Amino acid sequence: MSAVPFVTIAMPCLNEEGYIEACLESVAAQDYPRDRMEILVADGGSTDRTREILGRLSAEDPRIRMIDNPDRIQAAGMNQIIRQARGDVVIRMDVHCEYAGDYVRRCIEVLERTGADNVGGAQRPRAKTWFQKALCAALTSPLGVGGASYRSAENEGFVDTVFLGAFRRRVFETAGMYDPKAVTNEDAELNQRIHEAGGKVFLSRDIVVHYYPRASYAALAKQYYKYGQGRARTLLKRGTFPSPRPAIPFLMVVSGATLLATSRWHPLTLPAFGLYAVATGIEAIRVGRREGAPAIPIVWGIFPVLHASHGVGFASGLLRYGLDPDWAPEPERLDPIPVAVGTGEPLEA
């Protein structure tokens, strides 16, 4: 990369009129050199005021450009952006996140310092509502996140995956682009291919981004059900996981269902469920008390929602994608395009 790499900010969106303007304003105000950055937004056919807002913002700031994403899925939108990106580095951003003012600069610094192919920060939750505060507490627990490295703001080092990501352009030429049919788990699946291609992924404490988690039990259950489906799809597609963590909730659900179905022949069902209740209750007290006593029962209820929703979603994904795989045999790879050093412009332009 050149001394000051040209950066493409990649942002898929759909019906984000309440968030897109504030998000783009914060991205445009990054302390990275203005003339070394472009901001590409892939809109999936928004029916609210998102496209109107994007049109106005792009007229005010020529770095901002809207791209159509007819497939609507975020991963497909990322591919639309990557095909048109002029950057030496492609940094994925999400509309519902808040980024430190030095986010882009830190990503570039960590890429250059570590030699990694993709870098990112921890997935730091931030709360507005009482339920979100309890959920943030639950997500600090190994029972809530399974010990995933990218969930901890204190971790640093080479890992299996990171939140969002800042990619060297060559990643998409060697490991391939995003799986355009992946509704969830697309980042982890791409990072798995980066590792398989001999690349490295680095998690840095210096890269700071916050996101707002779901605000109700129902929304959380729906989210983790989809997560489970996506991780089952990745397992069937790649044939392996970097770690066994994603399968643990599924194994818990299978074990619980088996105990219930066979309870007439053994006395283990009540003790097993009682042990689970005690373990999650103790953990709810440990992580929830910092938010006050009223948060503890909410956290206690969050744990089984996370585990059961993910586990049932995983089982559903194994059945759905086992019967009807929807992925291509090989990932689409970005065609290498010679880029003039330090300009971000194709040589033929």
UniProtKB/TrEMBL annotation:
Keywords from UniProt, A to Z, are: Glycosyltransferase, Transferase
Zinc-finger found in the keyword field = no
Please give the Gene Ontology molecular function terms for this protein. glycosyltransferase activity
Domain (Glycosyltransferase 2-like) ranges: 8-173
Matching InterPro entries: Glyco_trans_2-like, Nucleotide-diphossugar_trans
Transmembrane helix as a keyword? no
The record ties this protein, via Pfam families, to:
Glycos_transf_2
Family as reported in the entry's similarity comment: Belongs to the glycosyltransferase 2 family.
By its UniProt entry, which PANTHER family does this protein fall under? POLY-BETA-1,6-N-ACETYL-D-GLUCOSAMINE SYNTHASE
Q: What is this protein called?
A: Glycosyl transferase, family 2
